[in-house]
Design brief:
- This protein is of the alpha+beta class and 848 residues long.
- Among the domains are: 289 residues, Biosynthetic peptidoglycan transglycosylase-like (Penicillin binding protein transpeptidase fold); 61 residues, 2-Layer Sandwich (Trypsin Inhibitor V, Chain A); 53 residues, Trypsin Inhibitor V, Chain A (2-Layer Sandwich), CATH 3.30.10.20.
- Helix content is 37%, strand content 16%.
- The chain has 27 helices and 30 strands.
- Helix 1 runs antiparallel to helix 4 and helix 12 packs antiparallel against helix 13.
- The longest helix has 23 residues.
- The protein is rod-shaped and about 155 Å long.
- The N terminus is likely disordered.
């Protein structure tokens, strides 16, 4: 923001100014020569009244300084980006060349070291020049110019969005730079007060640091860098004089426009050179240059080496989106100002040194991996991707990359779909993204509630594809409503009874819906919120049955944070990107801090982590881990493969990878943008590369084994249900936490329609939730009567409905010793039964 140049006033107005100034000239003479002498005995007029009513000292305050964002590369702090409204790099007196100090004094205030803040000769000369000339001249001393710039700085910090704000700003500028007697008197008194409070060297340093050098360049250090690619300490007399020349008239005397017709390269920057040579002549006149030095400086052409100071996140390369995230954290945090305008002004003027959590080792891997697997553009597909990682236990954001180039320039954004200003990793308020449907990664919150309610990982549910009546789902948050829903699976062959562990490993939709049907959907949503999950656009999370399969729109950084909480025994820490902030005055201020919450009981978190090792070890995320360190993870795929996710975590680093449609509905399994593989197939390679670097640097610990109760669950012994009605059998099984399944009718001796048996059989111990198949009797079997010990003739009569065969003789009086099948065996009528008989009983007396 540049101040509006004060309007020239007519001769009569200038004469009035002269009269007003003359009224206080005598008053100021003594004070100007000897600042310590009190000002007394003033004549009574308006300007003198203004003088008396002013405070003695002007609060200089802090100058506007650039804010810089840093990242860590080992032990070194690496600059990512700089932001400023005024490009200024304050320096000390000793860091400014003597030539620059001499040029400022010679060109602007030759009596600087002898007056008391107001140069009366210069002031009177300026007023006379105004009266007889066609423009206003102030005749201000360096101290007065310093005062004017300080006052103007306070104006520059004002917001100018509304009409009222712009009016206040213009009034402030007029009060700081106008030529009214009152303003001039105010400037003089403040200058006198400044001289009482500070040494000449301090005032000169302050002036050289605050002065404007054209455009957004402020201060001699930034000017030396911008115009000559050097430092204030190394300025030559010719360079110093050229810079001080610009201060006199920044708009027309700056030397960064070679095409300027009046002051361009073609005419040797004639206007600047003219003023420069005048200053050099004054430096020679006041014996600050020898004749040889003067001659050499005057002969030196004005040859700028323009070195722009790049600013903004576009200078941060692949870290630009993280840089943008950090900037938005500051702009959204009330501790940096009461409103948006104040926070923005503080950010651009406060000289903050912001040291961030970004780990450039991991960031490099993220950028290289992203570039290798996801192109910036791919035909008509609006393809986007994000990689972001956080540290469990601290919430520190370690890396953040995406497949697009960053720009905030509308023309650049419109020129190519390789650019975007939207940060896909973050929320709407922190990067402009509405998030993406998270698919099956959201199943972990159903798993959390499943375990909280006392279920176990090895407990089974019915994963068969079936139609649900929505009213059967419990939701204490909202009314689910009516209608039906028939969820299906991503892959065939996933039906049947499945344990919660198997459902997690293979990401079986129907199993998780079956689990959710036994739970409260509202509580599942609350579990997600406990892990820090929220909609990226700020709307409430949905808790309908379909949400179990991941229909909420969430940002990658939020999902990475949630999985970090799982890996950290259920203690979830909100993401933070800033480790330390130092203000422009050198004072450290507290950065936004993480907030850690125990999302679930540690025992539940351990069981969740154990279950989530399954997808990594041999499930849907197989191929992610080649480090040998324990790792948990979960894939996510939305309907029609529009969005793909893979989230993984060790105890030290958690990362989320999203790739999919920014807009549109392209199937991510049917395009092959790089390496001849689809994004669906590439996601494990992407995360493998990322997590390998993370483990190499941060390591990782084993996840603790969960409690047996949450792993195995309660064991139930299947009772003998034979002879009971199927309804009664199901009721008994349900009461034991088992699921009765209708089996086929089987041959049985039990009464037709009653239970013939079960599978698993009665007496078997199983985990709660298992299905037990109930077989009913068709009444087709008859139990064999026991004929052992009977005479053969009697046995044959008893078995008249069976095909009786005799072994060992056919004596009707022989005794049956055995039967096959045995007594009580259920067989069909007409079945063969073999009887073994003993030899005929001996007659009396035989064998004696």
């Amino acid at each position: 923001m540049s101040a509006t140049k004060p309007r020239a006033r007519g001769v009569l107005g200038a004469v009035g100014a002269f009269v007003g100034m003359s009224a206080v000239a005598g008053l100021l003479v003594t004070a100007a020569v000897t600042p310590a002498i009190a000002v007394t005995g003033m004549a009574a007029n308006d300007s003198i009244g203004v003088f008396e009513g002013l405070p003695e000292y002007l609060d200089v305050g802090q100058l506007a300084q650039p804010t810089t964002i840093y990242a860590k590369n080992g032990d070194a702090d690496v600059k990512l980006a700089t932001f400023y409204s005024q490009n200024r790099l304050p320096v000390a007196f000793s860091q400014i060349s003597q030539a620059a100090k001499d040029a400022a004094i010679a060109g602007e205030d030759p009596r600087f070291y002898s007056h008391g803040g107001v140069d009366i000769q210069g002031t009177v000369r300026g007023v006379l020049s105004t009266v007889v000339g066609h423009d206003v001249q102030g005749g201000s001393s360096i101290t007065q110019q310093y005062v004017k710039n300080v006052l103007l700085q306070k104006c520059e910090a004002m917001p100018v969005k509304t009409k009222e704000q712009k009016a206040k700003y213009q009034t402030c500028v007029d009060d700081s730079t106008g030529v009214s007697p009152d303003r001039k008197v105010k400037e003089m008194k403040y200058a006198i007060g400044i001289e009482k409070k500070y040494s000449k060297d301090v005032i000169l340093t302050g002036y050289l640091n605050i002065a404007g050098f054209g455009g957004s360049v402020y201060g001699v250090e930034a000017a030396a860098k911008y115009y000559f690619n050097t430092t204030a300490a190394a300025l030559t007399p010719a360079q110093a004089a050229s810079l001080i020349a610009i201060v006199n008239e920044p708009t027309t005397l700056k030397i960064d426009d070679p095409e300027s017709k009046t002051n361009g390269a073609a005419n040797g920057y004639a206007k600047n050179k003219e003023r420069r040579d005048y200053i050099l002549q004054k430096m020679y006149q006041y014996k600050k240059l020898t004749k040889a030095q003067y001659d050499e400086a005057v002969k030196t052409p004005v040859t700028p080496a323009i070195t722009p100071s790049t600013r903004g996140c576009q200078t941060a390369g692949g870290s630009a989106y993280f840089c943008d995230y950090v900037q938005r954290i500051i702009l959204n945090d009330p501790s940096f100002g009461a409103d948006d305008d104040t926070r923005s002004a503080n950010f651009l003027r406060g000289g903050y040194k912001i040291y961030t959590s970004l780990d450039l080792t991991l960031q490099q891997t993220a950028e290289e991996t992203m570039a290798s697997y996801v192109p910036r553009s791919y035909g008509d597909v609006q393809l986007g991707a994000s990689l972001v990682g956080v540290q469990p236990g601290t919430g520190r954001v370690l890396y953040m990359a995406q497949n697009k180039l960053y720009s905030g320039d509308a023309d650049v954004l419109n020129s190519s779909n390789e650019y975007t200003s939207v940060n896909y990793s973050t929320d709407l308020d922190y990067g402009g993204s509405n998030g993406f449907q998270v698919g099956s990664t959201y199943k972990v919150f159903t798993l959390a509630e499943w375990l909280k309610q006392g279920h176990s990982l090895y407990e089974s549910v019915n994963a068969n594809v079936r139609t649900y009546n929505l009213s059967q789902f419990k939701n204490s948050c909202v009314d689910v409503g009516g209608g039906t829903w028939r969820p299906t699976n991503d892959s065939p062959g996933e039906e049947g009874y499945r344990t919660a562990q198997s459902a997690t490993t293979l990401s079986i939709n129907t199993a998780f819906v079956a689990m959710a049907s036994q739970l409260d959907l509202c509580e599942i949503k609350k579990d997600a919120e406990a892990f820090g999950v929220h909609d990226a656009a700020g709307v409430p999370l949905k808790s309908n049955p379909a949400s179990v399969l991941g229909t909420n729109n969430v940002s990658p950084i939020t999902m990475a944070t949630a999985f970090a909480g799982i890996a950290n025994n259920g203690l979830t820490c909100t993401p933070v990107a800033i480790d330390k902030i130092i203000r422009g005055d050198g004072k450290e201020i507290a950065p936004p801090a993480t907030k850690c919450t125990q999302s679930v009981d540690p025992a539940v978190a351990k069981a969740m982590a154990y279950a989530l090792k399954g997808p990594i070890q041999g499930g849907t995320a197989a191929g992610t881990n080649s480090t040998g360190v324990d790792m948990l993870g979960k894939t996510g795929t939305t309907d029609d493969n529009k969005q793909l996710w893979l989230i993984a975590a060790t105890t030290k680093v958690a990362g989320a990878y999203w790739v999919g449609n920014i807009v549109g509905d392209t199937d991510m399994r049917k395009i092959y943008p790089t390496h001849g593989i689809s994004p669906a197939s590439a996601r494990t390679r992407v995360m493998n590369a990322m997590m390998t670097t993370a483990v190499n640097k941060y390591g990782g610990d084993d996840f603790a084994r969960p409690d047996t109760k949450l792993l195995q669950g309660a064991q139930v012994t299947i009772p003998d249900l034979a002879g009971k009605s199927p309804a009664d059998a199901k009721s008994i099984l349900n009461g034991l936490g088992l699921d009765g399944i209708d089996g086929t009718a089987v041959d049985s001796a039990a009464p037709a329609g009653t239970v013939a048996g079960t599978d698993p059989a009665a007496g078997t111990s199983v985990t709660k939730g298992n299905g037990v198949t109930i077989y009913t009797s068709n009444g087709a079997l008859v139990p064999l009567p026991n004929v052992v010990g009977q005479k053969l003739s009697d046995a044959q009569k008893a078995l008249s409905q069976f095909d009786v065969k005799v072994s060992g003789g056919n004596n009707k009086d022989a005794i049956v010793e055995a039967m096959d099948p045995g007594a009580g065996t259920p067989v069909k009528p007409g079945s063969a039964v073999t009887l073994k008989v003993a030899a005929a009983a001996p007659s009396p007396g035989v064998g004696k």
